[in-house]
Amino acid sequence: xxxxxxxxxxxxxxxxxxxxxxxxxxxxxxxxxxxxxxxxxxxxxxxxxxxxxxxxxxxxxxxxxxxxxxxxxxxxxxxxxxxxxxxxxxxxxxxxxxxxxxxxxxxxxxxxxxxxxxxxxxxxxxxxxxxxxxxxxxxxxxxxxxxxxxxxxxxxxxxxxxxxxxx
Length: 167
Description:
Layout: E1 8-12, E2 18-20, H1 23-31, E3 43-47, E4 56-60, H2 61-72, H3 79-90, E5 92-96, E6 102-104, H4 107-113, E7 118-124, E8 127-131, H5 133-149
Antiparallel strand pairs: 1-7, 2-6, 3-4, 3-5, 4-8, 7-8
Helix pairs in contact: 2-3
């Protein structure tokens, strides 16, 4: 069974770019790394993407393998394949969790999203995201609140899981 990331948390970032990963996230990384065994550090891939992306998306090895397989299934030479290769292969950073459960974020990635002394982690199913806390609050939290405000007061978001009526 595929494990999912759950939850959100704030963590300090030190001057060398080291930030602790939530313990529950580390368990998912371990379970989703086919090469991981007790005593090894689980691997992951951080996709930082183009100039429009203002967060880091952290993929388990299983999740990035699924993305890679879908990219590989596209016709060679197609624009879609070239662009997805650029976004997911070229604009990514393979790394691993260190011995103390931390992620070391290179200066280039920290600068890209404006990360300084604190990072905000939020689960996204088979990935998790790392944000500058202020950016998350200003952009993503505002989008969520706006979306919820457009729904009736008694609306249950779980109803989306049932799909459109008549299916």
